[in-house]
Design brief:
Blueprint (H helix, E strand, L loop, with lengths): L1 H13 L10 H10 L3 H12 L4 E5 L2 E10 L2 E5 L5 E4 L4 E5 L8 E6 L2 E6 L5 E5 L3 E6 L2 E12 L2 E11 L5 E6 L8 E5 L3
Antiparallel strand pairs: 1-2, 1-13, 2-3, 3-4, 4-5, 5-6, 6-7, 7-8, 8-10, 9-10, 10-11, 11-12, 12-13
Helix pairs in contact: 1-2
């Protein structure tokens, strides 16, 4: 009972509801029975969101992210602060990866793209036109290859997108740093 009163009191304070109010213990008991536990609410949200989950893989780490449609593309994000922006053709921004990687922006410019990473010099790579590819009826997509110097090294930066039989996104990849495996987003549910 005391714990429920403390929880309700903290809940009221956090939402600014206790300004000038007092709460009786019987009211606390009644209110605490009406409110679902935080863990129950969190598990419920995660269960409802699970069919939309994507797995982000980069530099040995794996993170669950969720897509949100926005004007001009899709944002893949999670509560941990990771955010990947996809403009419908390629990834154009990566933010919030754990460690020292920082923010990465990719901007189109004429026949190429600027690759900008926080704390490093921007690099311009010449990009080929988008090439369609097909492995089977349910595995096809496009690829964009960009060549030039990236972070001071000759590099091939690739943008790969894979679709399923219904034409829905299945997998998205981008080269962010020479010598590292690409950042990959993979849809978790078929």
């Amino acid at each position: 009972m005391k714990r429920a009163g403390i929880q309700l009191g903290l809940w009221c304070i956090s939402f600014g509801l206790c300004t000038g109010c007092s709460v009786q213990s019987s009211q606390v008991q009644t209110a605490s029975r009406l409110l679902p536990s935080f863990n129950f609410v969190q598990q419920s949200i995660e269960k409802k969101a699970a069919p939309y989950a994507w797995q982000l893989q980069f530099a040995g780490g794996e993170y669950t992210v969720y897509p949100v449609g926005v004007t001009g593309g899709i944002v893949f994000a999670n509560r941990g602060g990771i955010r990947v922006d996809f403009d419908g053709e390629a990834i154009v921004s990566v933010q919030g990866l754990p460690g020292a990687f920082g923010t990465y922006l990719i901007r189109r410019s004429g026949p190429g793209r600027w690759y900008e990473r926080a704390g490093t010099e921007a690099s311009w790579l010449r990009c080929a036109t988008r090439r369609e590819w097909r492995l089977s009826a349910d595995r096809y997509g496009w690829r964009i290859d960009c060549l030039g110097r990236l972070q001071g090294r000759e590099a091939l930066a690739q943008h790969n997108v894979e679709l399923d039989a219904a034409g829905d996104l299945r997998r998205i990849e981008i080269t962010l740093a020479p010598g590292l495996a690409p950042l990959t987003l993979v849809r978790q549910r078929p």
